[in-house]
Write a structure and sequence with these properties.
Number of domains: 1
Number of helices: 10
CATH superfamily: P-loop containing nucleotide triphosphate hydrolases
Structural class: alpha/beta
Number of strands: 5
Shape: globular
Length: 213
């Protein structure tokens, strides 16, 4: 494959999305996050609001069942089937979009379990970005104009949701497991700009090694 994909998972407030946007500008390739919801809507004909709702909220009962049943992410329900707009099928549609992007263009994908969905693709570089709580707190307080207590609550709730989302749709995978990624970066120690440079350089090394193989 001539194209490549960089997936970025990130702790809330760590700056992973901002690093992705800087990387997008540096490499001249698109960065996708919520745009994938619109793509999935266009692809399936299902209203975008259903993808947004599914993306933002997990039913507690479904989380409890996460480890009991592995989602069939390679199989899409037909429009005539009653589970066509189920949360799992909505995720499956997004997964199809992500796989198609990996086959056809170079891009950056933020979140969406993209590192797992594309784990068997040789042209994918997977990154996890994190930072200490104090740094994430300061970032959220400045960006959203909230108190330290409010920022801590937002970080706790968002990271808990992301961990549950990842576990559910990967059949029990750990969102923060470093083994699930090619590289884990501490954005407080390294800084956004240097994180961007490191990822861009690693991309060249990783793809060159893939070609040699």
């Amino acid at each position: 494959m001539d194209n490549y994909v960089i997936t970025i998972a990130r702790g809330f407030g760590s700056g992973g999305k901002q690093i992705g946007l800087r990387l997008s500008k540096k490499l001249g390739i698109p960065c996708y996050e919520k745009q994938i919801l619109q793509m999935a809507s266009d692809y399936s004909g299902i209203n975008k609001s259903l993808f947004v709702k599914s993306d933002e909220k997990l039913n507690g009962k479904k989380i409890a069942m996460a480890l009991k049943k592995f989602p069939k992410i390679n199989r899409l329900a037909e429009p005539s089937q009653k589970d066509f707009v189920s949360d799992v099928n909505l995720f499956n549609i997004q997964a199809e979009i992500i796989r198609e992007l990996a086959k056809t263009e170079s891009c950056i994908i933020i979140g969406k379990c993209a590192n797992y969905i594309l784990k068997d693709f040789s042209n994918v570089i997977s990154i996890y970005v994190e930072a200490p709580r104090r740094a994430c707190r300061a970032t959220i307080m400045e960006r959203l104009d909230v108190t330290a207590q409010e920022a801590d609550q937002m970080i706790y709730q968002t990271d808990k949701y992301r961990a549950n989302y990842y576990s559910y749709y990967t059949g029990g995978g750990s969102w923060t497991d470093p083994v699930a990624y090619d590289m884990t970066l501490n954005s407080e120690r390294i800084g956004y700009d240097d994180c961007t440079e490191i990822i861009a350089h690693f991309k060249d090394i990783r793809l060159a090694r893939t070609v040699q193989q």
